[in-house]
Every structure is written in structure tokens, then in C-alpha cells.
Amino acid sequence: MAVAAIVPGAAAAVLAFALGAVVADLGVGASAAIGVIVAVGGFAAQVLALGWARAVSLNAVQAVALFGFVVLLGLVFGAYAALNAAASWFSPKAFGVGLLVLIPVAAYEAYLARRGRVAELIVDADRAATARAKGSV
User: Which residue in 97, 51, 41 sits closest to 71, CA to CA?
Assistant: First the structure.
């Protein structure tokens, strides 16, 4: 699921940069693209962390699910603070608009969850790992 988010996320970052650069200037485009990259990268990191936690224990899954969102918020606010302090070209509004890419990502994830597709992906991954383990023994 992380890879499935990165491909459209990269396209969204390019689109955000292009729109911001055409409508305003290069700083606005870069700020919007960075917002998209932070949002999609944080989402992908959460997915990977949940995959790791699933192999550890249910308590690890719960901890990653609970604190992963807090870490994502810290990443967003840290990137905002660093860019706002260091970059004269940074546009906070464009960065915020770039972060809005999380809305369709979350909607797509909810759509997959409602259809049961997320559970199917987990079961398929477990079956593939089991088959690989049996084949290598």
C-alpha cells in the first residue's frame, strides 16, 4: 500500500509544483510540492511501520497506530517550522494546501477498508511470506 501511495503522490507533487509555479511563483510551487511530499511520505512511513508492527505483536500495532499519527504531526510541524525559519521563498499557505493531499489518500484507504481489500492485501502478503518460507526450507 505504501508503494501504491508513492506513485500518485509523486504525480501530485509535480502537479502541485506546476500549478503553484504558474499561478504565483517558484517558491509557492516548491512549498506546495514539499507539502505533498511530506504528507505522502509520512503516510507511506506509517504504512511501513504498521507492516513491521504486525510481525511483532498486537501491542506493537496498537502503539504504532496510536503514536504514528503523533509522529506524522511532528514531521509536518517540524518541516513547517524549519522551512518558515530558514527559507525566504517558503509559502506557508501553499505548504498547507499541499498537505491537503492526505484527504484523498485517507478517502481511498477508507474505501479499500470498507470493501475489505486491506484485509485481502494482508492475507495475500501473509500467504506469500508463508510460501516463500516453505520454499526456502
Answer: 41
* Angle, vertex CA 132, rays to CA 127 and CA 137, nearest 5: 130
How far, in Å, are 21, 25, 31, 106, 119 from residue 1 at the CA level? 30, 33, 26, 12, 12
Residues in the chain: 137
Distance CA 135, CA 44 (A): 30
Return the closest-CA partner of residue 104 out of 43, 18, 20, 17: 43
Q: How far apart are CA 26 and CA 69, in angstroms?
A: 30
pLDDT in tens, the chain (137 residues): 677 778 888 999 999 999 999 999 999 999 999 999 999 998 888 888 888 888 888 888 888 888 888 898 899 999 999 999 999 999 999 999 999 988 887 787 777 667 766 666 666 767 777 888 887 65
Residue 116 DSSP class: T
